[in-house]
Design a protein that fits this description.
about 170 residues, four-stranded mixed sheet, two-stranded antiparallel sheet, elongated, alpha+beta
Length: about 170
């Protein structure tokens, strides 16, 4: 149970952090999932602006144990919530939310990039964080530089097209 919150219980949902918990109120099937999952695609720049609601994985760079994260989402789906609020995105309360969450939980959520995709961080109850896998190269920097270069080339082409032609005779 959760002190000072009658009817609520906490559920250990590790993955995003070793001690992550979600809150559940069975009386009306309300789930506060925290960062066990999101209700917007955090990998999409467009969704960062539009906040379109959809079930999505936890924040990739901040989830150090994908096996535990997937197991937590699978367990949360068994609760069959009617309302779902997450740490990222707006709440969901669709008529078929329980079925949607079950289908989502059945899909792999582990990203194919990032520091923790092949090996999780390791924790000990007494010592806290004990080891992390080595860092991986940031794949976004080359794409960012290529995009900036292309933008500069296009911009120069536009500016060159707008400038007055040189070498023309005046009459």
């Amino acid at each position: 149970t959760v002190p000072a919150m009658p009817g609520w219980e906490w559920i250990h949902t590790p993955g995003h952090t070793a001690g992550h918990v979600s809150l559940w109120r069975a009386s009306d099937a309300v789930l506060l999932a925290g960062d066990a999952l999101a209700t917007m695609d955090l990998d999409s720049w467009v969704t960062q602006v539009t906040h379109e609601r959809e079930l999505a994985r936890a924040p990739v760079p901040m989830t150090p144990d994908w096996d535990a994260a997937e197991a937590s989402v699978t367990y949360l789906a068994t609760l069959r919530p009617k309302v779902l609020a997450a740490g990222h995105g707006r709440s969901l309360s669709k008529p078929y939310l329980a079925q949607q969450l079950e289908r989502y939980a059945a899909q792999p959520q582990r990203p194919n990039y990032g520091r923790y995709t092949k090996e999780p961080a390791h924790y000990s109850g007494e010592d806290g964080l004990t080891s992390v896998p080595p860092p991986v190269a940031d794949r976004s920097l080359p794409w960012l530089l290529a995009g900036l270069s292309a933008t500069g080339v296009i911009g120069l082409g536009i500016i060159a097209g707008l400038s007055p032609k040189r070498g023309r005779r005046r009459r």
